[in-house]
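pls read this protein.

:::
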Amino acid sequence: MRIAVFGTGAVGCALAGGLLNRGHSVAVGTRAPEDPAVVARLADLQGVSVMAHRDAAKTAELAIFAIPFDGLSAVAGEITATLPPGTTLIDACDPERPGPDGRPVLVIGHDDSGAEMLQRLVPGAHVVKAFNILAAADMVSPGFPEGPPTMLVCGDHEPAVQQAIALCRELGWTDILNLGGLHLARLTEALSVLWVYSALAAGSWDVAFRLIRRADN
């Protein structure tokens, strides 16, 4: 599958690498494809194509949005005209900024979410929220001694949600929960902030949430 990954940070690089290793054709979108810092970050991803956001969007059969919230509107504006209509767009980031103590705080919540904002800005896509509640290092083939963590997914277009779930499985996720509509991203985005505080309290970023069930359910 031809997959566009928008963003060259830890999340974008982790997901792009996992997709490459599973045989997908990956185009990474960035504002500065020839920037030495971008080239250095992607040096280990042999076979990835690096191009401007709008050009990466043209290639996509599926896309992943891994852009910090401060860049959401600008990058969404770059891709909305070139992303093929009906493309599944997985939103893997959260609307947060550092607070006064350096820890993240939500910029929006309660009655809106970053995922819903992205959907409004890229109306031709089907936005699905996923991959936003744990560290980038654990987004592919997550392994924990206590058992697999739970991936929470939500979106308004069920075929797109199922495509995102299939991609999660391909990347090594075995416990995936379809929460429902995209408005529930308001809760998973808040959970991402709770994840940061949980990791700080635990003294490790290598933590994740897991939904436990009774054996007879």
Summary: The mean pLDDT is 95.
